[in-house]
Amino acid sequence: MKPGLEERLLFLSMSVELTFGVTGVIFSEQAGSTAVLLDGAYSLICSITMIATIMVAKRIKQPPTTNFPLGQAALEPFLLSVEALILLTLCTALATHAGYKLINHSHPPNFSIALAYELASLITDLGMAFLIHRSARKINSPLLQFEAQEWILDGMLSAVALASFSVGEYLIEFPDIESLIDPVLTLVLIALVLPFPLKTLRTNINQLLWHSPEKELRLKMQQNIKRLDGYHCHLEPPVLLVMGRTLWITIRTSPIAGESPPEWPELENLKQRLRKDLQRDYPNYELHIQLTLGSSG
């Protein structure tokens, strides 16, 4: 990973999000659109939480200390959980407001102003999503991956809003229908947004609770271990824990019946072979491997 690349990209993302967040809130007032407010508020919230994200990106790279003997990897899923909760709260508030406007047939928004904002937002969203996503894959950064997903989601919101406001421009002669576009669009956008923070919250809460990772990862890890040969002990299925970009692997060994238990040099050699094999298949994780010696029991 290039030194500071993750932090620079996060800072760039925060700056762009802050700009469009403030602009979106201002444009929503001028246009009288809840949908534009959702788009702008989403960017604004993301930019504010990004400040904490940049701080976390630095802290999780620090070595273990007396106060944090396992490092600070838990900060990453904790922060992502908080961001997901904030987004869920925003969606709930705006859905309530959109429902009120839908029932009371509020005045339709200024579609020209709304269109101008959503067009500029869509172009920026696509460009930032491409840049952040490509970089996240290169340097293995869950924070950048999460940020790329936010830009993709923001681009989806902008695209749907742009199409809806374009239709609204042609419904000036039908005020009853025209007044429904903004609240209905807001509810549609919220329906598109909700799966993202819900999935993020579930994944990261599971990590904070030390929940076992996905079955696919567990099965693949067992296959990696079975490929090893030339050792004189049984290897039991590994115990896996994932916390952000850190993967802890604990494997219990036991001596083969009729043979003496493996000595420490053999276990250390086995550990190094396993690490080399796993680093090839799991380059996105920081590996912590522990071998324990059990009885032949």
Automatic annotation (TrEMBL):
Residue ranges of coiled coil: none
Residue ranges of domain Cation efflux protein transmembrane in the record: 10-209
Topology versus the membrane: Multi-pass membrane protein
Claim: Aminoacyl-tRNA synthetase is one of the keywords in the record: no
Protein name: Cation transporter
Organism: Parendozoicomonas callyspongiae
Broad class of the protein's primary localization: membrane
Highest taxon of source: Bacteria
Record's subcellular location: Membrane
Statement: the UniProt record of this protein carries the keyword Cell membrane: no
InterPro entries: Cation_efflux_TM (IPR058533), Cation_efflux_TMD_sf (IPR027469), CDF_Transporter (IPR050291)
TM regions (residue ranges): 9-28, 40-57, 78-99, 111-131
Keywords: Membrane, Transmembrane, Transmembrane helix, Transport
